[in-house]
């Protein structure tokens, strides 16, 4: 059942906010501050799912205060041991933070912009109160997403963020598309637990080299990439293109030094409903298990605010 309340559409308890600019149209939901869809002139630039339903494979959701996995849900910060709830029991990990299943509060909704916030309070193994905001805004070049995280507690807090963004080149099947990544290294993962299994390695000349456009025919990835090289404007760009050259470009600012590239694939029992094979390019501030490795872990002092920006547009 759906109803419209103050410009927002509510379905199964989840609010949905529509924004438009020129030929661009987007829809953002309150659950996990998720991006439900982005399109231009009716051509999809993201995968989508029915309004009010749980997005498959965490599509579009904000992942904070850490992205990806923490080994055994355990970490030490500032000399204090923490045991988080295990949210990926099959691999005994804590996965994708604490806010992707919660409803965020609407702060602003205009024809082109939606800003939502959530106060992250105390959880098992997490004694650090944070105030998070996510703003989705459409402009001539597409979607810009701005995240902030403010430490509203009395202690320094560890922090990381990611977004589980599925990109799409219109209706072209993934196996007919090409992918280009502005990334020079990849972090090997243990295939059983999907946790780091060594130091970052160069991608050049390997099966993980997408620095030039490569076909995705039969390719499967669930891989953290780094050594991301920005363009002169400070943005790093990653491109998914259909055979006719159209497609989607996902860009990140310097705060997002990592991307996780994931292929949904029915052959691995993780197909995207209605699409089969699909591709996520996930902006991340840090790699998996960063609270244990310390790699690119952000530390927020009391009263300090972090800001990061990424976006998605048409090619």
From TrEMBL:
<protein>
    <submittedName>
        <fullName>Aldose 1-epimerase family protein</fullName>
    </submittedName>
</protein>
<dbReference type="InterPro" id="IPR008183">
    <property type="entry name" value="Aldose_1/G6P_1-epimerase"/>
</dbReference>
<dbReference type="InterPro" id="IPR037480">
    <property type="entry name" value="YihR-like"/>
</dbReference>
<dbReference type="InterPro" id="IPR014718">
    <property type="entry name" value="GH-type_carb-bd"/>
</dbReference>
<dbReference type="Pfam" id="PF01263">
    <property type="entry name" value="Aldose_epim"/>
</dbReference>
<dbReference type="InterPro" id="IPR011013">
    <property type="entry name" value="Gal_mutarotase_sf_dom"/>
</dbReference>
């Amino acid at each position: 059942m759906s109803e419209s309340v103050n410009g927002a559409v509510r379905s199964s308890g989840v609010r949905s906010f529509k924004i438009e600019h020129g030929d661009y149209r987007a829809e953002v939901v309150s659950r996990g501050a998720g991006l439900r869809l982005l399109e231009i002139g009716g051509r999809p630039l993201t995968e989508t799912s029915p309004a009010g339903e749980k997005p498959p494979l965490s599509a579009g959701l904000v992942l904070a205060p850490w992205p990806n996995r923490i080994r055994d849900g355990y970490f030490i910060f500032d000399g204090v041991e923490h045991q988080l709830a295990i949210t990926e029991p099959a691999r005994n990990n804590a996965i994708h933070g604490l806010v992707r299943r919660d409803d965020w509060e609407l702060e602003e909704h205009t024809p082109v912009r939606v800003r939502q916030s959530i106060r992250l309070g105390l959880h098992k193994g997490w004694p650090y109160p944070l105030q998070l905001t996510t703003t989705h805004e459409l402009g001539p070049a597409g979607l810009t997403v701005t995240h902030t995280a403010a430490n509203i507690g009395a202690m320094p807090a560890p922090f990381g963020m990611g977004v589980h963004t599925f990109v799409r080149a219109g209706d072209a099947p993934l196996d007919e598309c090409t992918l280009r990544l502005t990334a020079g290294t990849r972090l090997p993962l243990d295939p059983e637990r999907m946790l780091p299994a060594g130091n970052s390695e160069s991608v050049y000349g390997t099966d993980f080299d997408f620095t030039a456009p490569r076909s995705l025919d039969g390719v499967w990835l669930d891989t953290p990439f780094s050594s991301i090289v920005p363009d002169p404007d400070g943005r790093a760009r990653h491109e998914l293109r259909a055979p006719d050259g159209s497609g989607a470009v996902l860009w990140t600012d310097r705060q997002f030094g990592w991307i996780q590239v994931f292929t949904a694939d029915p052959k691995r029992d993780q197909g995207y409903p209605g699409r089969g094979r699909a591709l996520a390019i996930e902006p991340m501030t840090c790699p998996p298990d960063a609270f244990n490795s310390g790699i690119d872990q952000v530390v927020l002092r009391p009263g300090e605010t972090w800001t990061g920006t990424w976006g998605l547009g048409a090619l």
